[in-house]
Write a structure and sequence with these properties.
With about 70 residues, the protein is of the alpha+beta class. Helices cover about 20% and strands about 60% of the residues. A three-stranded antiparallel β-sheet has the order 1-3-2, with helices on one face. The longest helix is centred in the middle third of the chain and has 12 residues. It is elongated. InterPro entries: Dodecin (IPR009923), Dodecin-like (IPR025543), Dodecin-like_sf (IPR036694).
Length: about 70
């Protein structure tokens, strides 16, 4: 039987929501092993002068506990 733990993180990118998600998982995987899935909970953007300046995602990352 496997046990999974869930970690919630926020990540940001100047490129896209997809890039923000990729960067969040990449960074989390530096300290968290056995990542099995990521669920995007929320997407948002920061705006300046009528233009999107950055993309943000809230991720719930699940990983297997040893």
């Amino acid at each position: 039987m496997s046990v999974l733990k869930v970690l919630e993180i926020m990540s940001e990118s100047k490129e896209s929501w997809e890039d923000a998600a990729e960067e969040g998982i990449k960074k989390a995987s530096q300290t968290v092993s056995n990542i099995k899935s990521a669920n995007i909970q929320n997407q948002s953007a920061t705006v300046s002068d009528g233009k999107i300046t950055s993309y943000r995602v809230n991720l719930k990352i699940s990983f297997e506990v040893d």
